[in-house]
């Protein structure tokens, strides 16, 4: 892969600047043509609050019928179980546990750097060059591997999050022959998640993210058969306000879908009251980039560049306690960082995993 050159500021006043991305960098990211291999599912899990276990079920997408409209996404909000914030990003538990329990079967590449993280963190990074909102990423390095977590406070309990769950409830059923159960109380702390593995250039990414279900007219015989699961046609449902800026929304939808090997999404537009009146739109993920000015090559090129810079910066770090906190500021295209040596309130690797790798 061609070596990229970045506008890294050796600023005497602010030596904590990692990258200052400019137009020339965007061109380099695009030209790098960073290869991202098709993600492979390594596990399907049911999350129940902060615990998780191999899932015993999967949901099946049901095409919305005209009689379903209008869809009030507020139904059940007053009875929903709210989000309980976690000390760390709970999706990190999945790749860490997989590395522990499947250490004899998971073949770690000898030349690639393994990155343990969540789809949310990868999404934040991939949308950086086109993003609008500030965020931060926590990174530790141990035995040559990188561990990345996001901000647990991002799991805020908002009507927007409930609308997402309510739409999912209206569109997914327990089997291909059943209708969605739309009258059950919604618990915001229960979800279905996939663990994916994919290569991005020299990096081996192991990450977890929420999934909703598959498109199939037949019941899946064994959801613990990874070969069978990887052949399934997964689908996402999304909802947005009628006035949302589609360019940014569909960038995030595309990234999430690409990281999850999803090529079908159904998007609902809601009015100011949270009601969907127009038919839900079916979009092929592979067609989305054709409609917007952002470029997929830039997203993947930047992600690879960021990981390279972080790995080089932290080459002397070998600790699950030391944390580098990277502040992402998309409006200024600047990434800065702070270092927290040893165990601090920024340390995010759980004790059970630290004990495992240190023994």
UniProtKB/TrEMBL annotation:
GO cellular component: cytosol; nucleus
BP terms from Gene Ontology: NAD-cap decapping; nuclear-transcribed mRNA catabolic process
InterPro entries in UniProt: RAI1 (IPR013961), RAI1-like_fam (IPR039039)
UniProt keyword Nucleus, yes or no: yes
Protein EC: 3.6.1.-
A single MF term (Gene Ontology): metal ion binding
Statement: the UniProt record of this protein carries the keyword Metal-binding: yes
Keywords, ordered alphabetically: Hydrolase, Metal-binding, Nuclease, Nucleotide-binding, Nucleus, RNA-binding
One matching Pfam family: RAI1
RAI1-like domain segment(s): 55-353
Recorded superkingdom: Eukaryota
Subcellular location(s) per record: Nucleus
Top-level class of the enzyme under EC nomenclature: hydrolase
Cofactor: a divalent metal cation
Known function: Decapping enzyme for NAD-capped RNAs: specifically hydrolyzes the nicotinamide adenine dinucleotide (NAD) cap from a subset of RNAs by removing the entire NAD moiety from the 5'-end of an NAD-capped RNA.
Family: Belongs to the DXO/Dom3Z family.
Protein name (Swiss-Prot/TrEMBL): Decapping nuclease
Species name: Musca domestica (House fly)
Gene: LOC101895322
């Amino acid at each position: 892969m061609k070596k990229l050159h970045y506008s890294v500021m050796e600023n005497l006043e602010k030596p904590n600047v990692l990258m200052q991305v400019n137009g020339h960098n965007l061109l380099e990211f695009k030209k790098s043509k960073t290869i991202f291999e098709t993600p492979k599912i390594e596990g399907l899990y049911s999350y129940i609050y902060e615990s998780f276990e191999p899932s015993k079920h999967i949901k099946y997408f049901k095409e919305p019928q005209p009689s379903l409209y209008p869809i009030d996404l507020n139904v059940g909000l007053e009875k929903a179980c709210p989000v309980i914030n976690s000390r760390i990003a709970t999706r990190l538990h999945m790749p860490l546990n997989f590395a522990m329990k499947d250490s004899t079967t998971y073949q770690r590449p000898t030349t690639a750097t393994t990155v343990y993280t969540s789809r949310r963190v990868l999404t934040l990074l991939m949308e950086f060059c086109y993003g609008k909102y500030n965020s931060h990423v926590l990174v530790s390095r141990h035995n040559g591997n990188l561990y990345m977590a996001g901000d647990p406070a991002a799991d805020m309990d908002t009507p927007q999050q409930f609308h997402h769950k309510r739409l999912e409830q209206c569109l997914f059923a327990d089997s291909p022959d059943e209708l969605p159960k739309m009258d059950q109380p919604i618990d915001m702390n229960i979800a279905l998640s996939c663990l994916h593995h994919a290569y991005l250039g020299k990096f081996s990414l192991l990450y977890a993210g929420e999934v909703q279900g598959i498109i199939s007219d037949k019941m899946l015989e064994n959801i613990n058969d990874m070969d069978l699961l990887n052949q399934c046609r997964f689908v996402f449902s999304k909802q947005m306000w009628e006035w949302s800026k589609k360019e940014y929304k569909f960038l995030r939808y595309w990234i999430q879908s690409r990281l999850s090997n999803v090529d079908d999404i159904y998007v609902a537009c809601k009015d100011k009251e949270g009601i969907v009146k127009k038919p839900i739109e079916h979009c092929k993920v592979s067609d989305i980039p054709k409609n917007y000015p952002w470029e997929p090559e830039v997203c993947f090129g930047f992600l690879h560049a960021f990981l390279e810079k972080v790995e080089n910066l932290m080459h002397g770090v070998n600790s699950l306690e030391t944390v580098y906190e990277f502040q992402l500021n998309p409006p200024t295209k600047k990434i800065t960082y702070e270092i927290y040596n040893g165990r601090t309130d920024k340390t995010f690797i759980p004790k059970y995993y630290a004990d495992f790798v240190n023994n």
